[in-house]
Amino acid sequence: MILGACGAPADTPDGGGADHDGAVDGDRAPDAAACSPEIVVAEAAPLALYVMLDQSGSMADPVAIGGDRWHAVTGALATFAQAPGATGVGLGLQYFGVPQTACTAASCVTDADCGGAACGPCFQSLCLGAVDNADSCAAADYATPEVEIAALPAAAPAIIQSTQLHGPSTATPTGPALQGAVDHAAAWSAAHPDQSVAVVLATDGLPTECGAAVSDLATIAAAGVDASPPVRTYVIAIGPGLASLDTVAAAGGTGAAAAIDPTADPGAEMVAALRAIRDDAAACTYRIPTPTTGSPDLQAVNVVVTPSGGAATTVPYVAGAAACPAGGDAWSYDDPAAPRRIVLCDATCGTVRGDAGATVTIALGCATESR
User: Fold this and answer.
1) Domain range list for the chain
2) What is the DSSP string of 175-198?
């Protein structure tokens, strides 16, 4: 529906049905003709990914084309981080499991690679202090990244150097690892409100430590989506027998896990999965623009989609991703209680992504149209 420049529908972002001056709806008659919006080309929100990478012993399993899962996956991560298509994407990295101490490096060349006396010395390419410790079950140990989120390609050397100091050596404490990843992504998002942040859980097995089951992982992922700001979780499943991880991806708002087949070319499949995650996570998420004068009025924002060769259509607002219709056009704020970004619902996003000539603009100053 359309109200005048001063009216506000009851289901617009503030949910209160108040006019812009604080008066209750009905104090003023709508006057759509009086509204002249400011049109702004939609600007994609910058993307940041926090990768939680499995370094359990099974990652040493061989792959069909030679080498092992670990080198296939970390090589793919290096390829992704250095590719021109990832320029500007933020990328951070942590591993699981990590020792109960502050040790973060398991593999080494010199004592210095072990990160200090508590984790060294380096003996036969292993940091003995790290090897002797059991995996941590504390989410806080995984919420602290080994490589903090930073924009690519500048962050690529740190990512690559980090992977070279690690290797398959632990069990699989996936529960605290995922919780820590969601916690760090949420903290990063709160500190960087202009960015869209997501977790990437890459694993070749089901949880083996710390008392977590796949259902617990799904609960953690769902809580991330429901949090403010929300954090989505993508899952990359490396190897067979991991279909149950689809429930974690679904709970994390990302559909199904990306399956990597070790009997094919896992490195190429891993690169493709990371690129697909990048494209999906970045798609259809836009900054809330600031008008030429004044501050954004979140009750007076409209999204307009113009298909190639077609007429412009104002897409209606819904109060959160959970309210997106199964097949109709709609958009929402990432967090209706504290909006920071505009997000197209799946059906509208699919239309825009499938039409190379489509444009998305944001109209400021006229009351938000809602379903």
Assistant:
1) 1-43+289-371, 47-98+135-282
2) HHHHHHHHHHHHHHHHH-TTSEEE
